[in-house]
Structure formats: structure tokens, C-alpha cells
Design goal:
Layout: E1 7-13, H1 17-25, H2 27-30, E2 41-47, E3 54-60, E4 66-67, E5 69-77, E6 81-88, E7 95-105, E8 108-116, H3 121-141
Antiparallel strand pairs: 1-8, 2-3, 3-4, 3-5, 5-6, 6-7, 7-8
Length: 142
């Protein structure tokens, strides 16, 4: 993949790998954080976190506009790694997200998010903004 169209974010969370992993793989927990802004809600989160399983998220803003990514889990290693495709409902472009979970201690986890396959840097940069918001909300939800 072209490094110019790959996004990599690292964050440390004050929670165990098990807890952080659960936040990414449990629909009810994802509804608490999986959107970039506090002015948004997640009315739908469908998750089948297993190799070959799928997910679908619906984010809704205050005006009722919805944004819906979905995809298929390529690899699920509990408490260690998630690899899944990412496709917006209104787009034909499919990218790939890899989430690596690394225990720093029993109560601290380093998360590395790699989102690759963007056809252009502008699209990567828009996703960077969205992921930054999501990860901030994840931190608050933990």
C-alpha cells in the first residue's frame, strides 16, 4: 500500500486489552462511542466479530443525516487484533482497517489503528479527522 494513503494512529487507554477489545466487538458498547462527534448518536450497531463475520454501524447527526460504514472481519484474534474491510453505504470504495491491541499492563492498553487503501490523501485526511473523534469518544467511554 502507498504510505501516502495510509493512516496510522496510536493511543493508550486506561483499561485492559479485554475491555478495549470488547468496546470494538460488542454492539451495545459500540453504541456508546463509535462516532466522531458528541452531537451524533449510533442508533444501529450490528457486529458479528469472527473471521468472515460482518458489521454495520449507523451514525446519525442532529439533523437526522446518517453515515453508515460496514464491512467484513478478515481476522479476529481476541484481545490482540482486528482486521476488517471498511465501506461507506454511499461509496464503492473499500479500504482496510487493522486494530492492534497491546497490553502495557493489566489496566493499560496501547491501541494502533491502521487504515489503508485510500485512493487519495484527501480521503485519508477526512478519515483521520473522524477516527480522532472516535478515539476520543472511546477514551471517554472507558
Amino acid at each position: 500500500m502507498n504510505a501516502g494513503t495510509t493512516l496510522v494512529l496510536k493511543r493508550t487507554f486506561p483499561a485492559s486489552c479485554e475491555r478495549v477489545f470488547a468496546m470494538w466487538t460488542t454492539a451495545e458498547l459500540m453504541k456508546k462511542w463509535f462516532c466522531p462527534g458528541k452531537d451524533m448518536t449510533i442508533p444501529v450497531a450490528e457486529v458479528d466479530a469472527r473471521d468472515g463475520g460482518s458489521y454495520r454501524i449507523v451514525m446519525q447527526n442532529q439533523d437526522g443525516e446518517t453515515y453508515s460504514p460496514s464491512g467484513v472481519y478478515e481476522k479476529v484474534v481476541p484481545n490482540e487484533k482486528l482486521v476488517f474491510s471498511w465501506k461507506w453505504a454511499d461509496s464503492e470504495i473499500i479500504t482496510r482497517v487493522t486494530i492492534d491491541f497491546r497490553a502495557i499492563s493489566d489496566a493499560e492498553t496501547e491501541l494502533t489503528l491502521t487504515h489503508e487503501g485510500f485512493p487519495e490523501t484527501d480521503m485519508r485526511d477526512r478519515h483521520n479527522e473522524g477516527w480522532e473523534g472516535c478515539l476520543s469518544r472511546l477514551s471517554e467511554a472507558l
